[in-house]
Amino acid sequence: KNEVEQSPQNLTAQEGEFITINCSYSVGISALHWLQQHPGGGIVSLFMLSSGKKKHGRLIATINIQEKHSSLHITASHPRDSAVYICAVRFGNEKLTFGTGTRLTIIP
Amino acid sequence: ETGVTQTPRHLVMGMTNKKSLKCEQHLGHNAMYWYKQSAKKPLELMFVYNFKEQTENNSVPSRFSPECPNSSHLFLHLHTLQPEDSALYLCASSQVLGDEAFFGQGTRLTVV
Question: Helix H segments across chain B?
């Protein structure tokens, strides 16, 4: 069964802390996405990756194909980073399978 | 602003009503998607359109009827919904099928 698991489900941290959100999947994938969903509901695509590492501003996404694991890191976290972060994977040519999300709250 | 616009943002409808959700993108994308997000559940893909043709219906009940008149517009027609259909409905588009998707803000639907 193609599954996606995220951890933690909820994360609260102080402003400035280094944040790590994890995503594990069950079988080989063709692509992995990290998405950000703000309280209003809109979703923004942060990264799409199939290997290695990508960086955009304070956000870094890594993927380890052998371990079937990806991490999303946020450096120098800020209250505006508070959102739900969703991992989604594509198993082969199938549709995207979504994790249940990690709710991140950054306290000033 | 992602370039994908959904209207309305909020909708309350009775079980006997008929309403439509609208999605519009002018990004030049050829694939469009409807997703449903219920409370405490992962996003669920409902429909996929590629070059105006429906390529996927993920076992969605017939009370949800999609329409894609052109590559820029996607509608979701709703009729005789149930309270359990209350959710956030998200539209997305991508350049080609399977490519990185751009999402709209969503329509929060409440069925009473």
Answer: none
> What are B20-68's pLDDT values in tens digits?
999 999 899 999 999 999 988 889 999 999 999 998 888 899 999 999 9
Q: What is the pLDDT of residues B80-107, one digit of tens each?
A: 999 999 999 999 999 988 788 899 999 9
**Rounded CA gap, B104 and A57, in Å?**
23
Of B41, B90, B98, the CB nearest to A43: B90
Q: How far is B98 from chain A (nearest CA, A)?
A: 8
- Closest to B92 measured CA to CA, from B79, B107, B77, B82: B107
Contacts of A45 in chain B (CB under 8 A): 100-103
- Option in A42, A48, A95 nearest B100 (CB): A48
Instruction: Report CA-CA distances (Å) from A27 to A37, A62, A64, B38.
Output: 26, 17, 12, 26
Q: Cβ contacts (< 8 Å) between B95 and chain A: which residues?
A: none
* Position B17 pLDDT exceeds 80: yes
